[in-house]
């Protein structure tokens, strides 16, 4: 956290409502994007639920911890609860195996004109939910491996390994879904660029 954000967090934990609102304004766009890519039209509701959960649990946030990591850790649990609530077999959901496309087919309102963007969007939604979250935190929210480790509750080295594995998952889906080898190659070779473009697309739509 920046010194400014540390001050806001300390003030909020001490009861300053405006400081809490300032923190939420800083992270609203990213949090909305987090849910938009995985839960579509339910994004606004889930974003509000996450902020409410943070308000109710703010005493548990250590002053020295990353507020952003805490926030996305809560968001991940809210997303899991959302999917469990929609599933008839909620106790059997394994987020390391099931994908967003399995749980919520299609992504209403997000449309990509470029073939690479459309392909990457489809591929991202077909990898396990946990892998999609990992890549979005890394490429979209620009979190460090250490921060992501806080979100997931795993060591930094484990995060780096999982990022590599998740990217391989995406590349495999790209190869399977692409209409041509050339399209697959251009998407994979320009992965960082297309990931950033997709971030902007999901935030805008």
Automatic annotation (TrEMBL):
SUPFAM superfamilies, per database record: Sigma2 domain of RNA polymerase sigma factors (SSF88946), Sigma3 and sigma4 domains of RNA polymerase sigma factors (SSF88659)
Location of the RNA polymerase sigma factor 70 region 4 type domain: 118-169
Keywords: DNA-binding, Sigma factor, Transcription, Transcription regulation
A Pfam family reported for this protein in Swiss-Prot or TrEMBL: Sigma70_r2
Residue ranges occupied by any RNA polymerase sigma-70 region domain in the UniProt entry: 23-89
Family assignment from sequence similarity: Belongs to the sigma-70 factor family. ECF subfamily.
Official protein name in the record: RNA polymerase sigma factor
Species the sequence originates in: Nannocystis radixulma
């Amino acid at each position: 956290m920046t010194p400014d954000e540390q001050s806001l967090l300390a003030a909020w934990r001490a009861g300053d409502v405006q400081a809490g609102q300032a923190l939420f304004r800083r992270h609203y766009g990213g949090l909305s994007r987090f849910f938009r890519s995985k839960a579509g039209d339910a994004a606004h509701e889930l974003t509000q639920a996450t902020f409410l959960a943070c308000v109710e649990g703010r005493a548990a946030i250590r002053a020295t911890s990353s507020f952003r990591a805490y926030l996305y850790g809560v968001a991940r649990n809210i997303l899991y609860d959302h999917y469990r609530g929609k599933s008839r077999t909620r106790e059997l959901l394994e987020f390391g195996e099931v994908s967003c496309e399995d749980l919520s087919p299609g992504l209403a309102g997000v449309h990509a004109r470029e073939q690479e963007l459309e392909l990457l969007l489809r591929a991202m939604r077909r990898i396990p939910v946990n892998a999609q979250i990992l890549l979005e935190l890394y490429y979209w929210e620009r979190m460090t491996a250490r921060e992501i480790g806080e979100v997931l509750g795993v060591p930094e080295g484990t995060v780096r390994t999982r990022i590599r594995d998740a990217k391989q998952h995406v590349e495999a889906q790209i190869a399977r879904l692409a209409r041509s080898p050339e399209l697959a190659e251009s998407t994979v070779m320009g992965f960082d660029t297309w990931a950033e473009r997709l971030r902007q697309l999901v935030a805008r739509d």
